Predict the structure.
Amino acid sequence: MKINHNENIIWKCFLVLLFINNIFTLYISANEDINTNIYSILCCNYIILIIGMFLLEIILTKFEVLKSFKFILILLMILSSYVSYIIHPTYFLREWIIPLIGYIEIPIAILLLENVKHLKINIKIFQILCILFSLIILLKYYFSPLYSYQGAITLGYTNSNRTAIYLILILSQNLVCYIHSQDKRWKIALLISGILISMLIPLTQSRMSTVCLILIWIMFIFKEKIKINKFIIYLIIISPLFIMYLYMLFYDKSWMRNTIIFEKSLSSGRDAIYNITFYELKDKMLFGNYMFTKFENKHNVLLTVLGSCGILGVIFFVIYYVSSYCKIFEYSKTSREKYYILLLLLCIYINGFAESALYVSGIMFAGMYISIHSMAFIDKTDKEELND
């Protein structure tokens, strides 16, 4: 399915959305005491724009998008969550709808943008935005220090782990633009920007994001030598369950409590969160326990989905992301750039081993994530046009 029209309204709307969301996100971070209602209004506007873009694509594709496999999976993801909600209802319907939107925003964004044409001017604007976002973050850190909480830098209104995810996405955007650019000046600027952003990530004291940072640079340096297949993709997507099992297996071991990384115990309370969540779900695995979980961050992406949607919801979630990454894998057979983007996305997913915010609280991250994901679908003619 390929949208065929000269000026891609969807992608233009997305770039405007990406710009507005990031500028306001960074502005709010500079104001520690800003009324949180402003951020709520911003999130609502973001949701409205995403829905508007989706309706626009339905019209432009003459309803073809509604027949796609990914759209059916999104409906099943929504349905599994709704079943968990009606079995274990909260007091207000909005307590289901609002978290659900954060959960399905990235899947909807993938559906919106992975099939559209990348125009030369749009991608040039995207490169400029990458540099702009990086510069704002760096200027805020070096000249007007980011808000610090217990020694870890944050964006002020959110915690250090989410700040680390945000920085990981900015770094990834820079590296994606780097590998697609043929202009030496742009490549130097993007590389320097990526290195400087990388230096901030350990300062968030987010250990899993620091692991992701190391993996991202390893993949970047050795991308020509690293080989993966579909089995590895499947394995990585379901790996959060294995990591969670190991945490629960060793949670009462003294070495877990005594091993200190970034001034925090290796367990850092996640073992307790996992055990409590499993206790609440022990008789409710099939449909989950929405009243208890409500897409709140349980520090493991599959555990959060399990609690909010049940086993069926986990299956639909896994199938969706496996199918998305496998599609990039097929495209990557003819392009090293696309192959690196796949490696990059898998590194980002590894953050879900200990944090689920990226995949269940998509309002803050959806635009940045999909901008990386969609760059895997630049075809040869698009790239030649980009480098004219």
Summary: The longest strand covers residues 148-149. Residues 9-144+227-386 form one domain.
